[in-house]
Amino acid sequence: MDMDVTSLQDQASKVATDAANLFEEAQKLANQATHLADMAVAGVDGSMDFLSLFTVFVLSCFVGFYVVWSVTPALHSPLMAVTNAISSVIIVGGLLAAGHMDMDFSAVMGFMAVTLASVNIFGGFIVTQRMLVMYKKKNRG
Q: What is the C-alpha to C-alpha distance for residues 130 and 75, in angstroms, rounded to an integer?
């Protein structure tokens, strides 16, 4: 089952193109999330009600679901790197929510967001490290 070098190059080029497209899409989503976060911060004074914030949350869940499930298996490693970057943004938002002096619902949810995003980030690095070890050449004595 030898693969032709040209077909292997074509497949690698296609995977690289798909990775670049995924990266661009992730950047667009990150920009939109930043814009929505700016709107939410501007709405802290009460101009954004619960229903609008909940709508943003539900829509982001749908967008995330369809982005993750539409990725080909060859791009799962780059996707994990992007989700680690997104989780770092979640940590920043969670720290902002948990940083209040009084212990209210947003502080508890902020703490939970920081905790779960930290597990996601460290777990992603561990899984990525294990995947990279699988690709290293084994010493055959």
A: 16
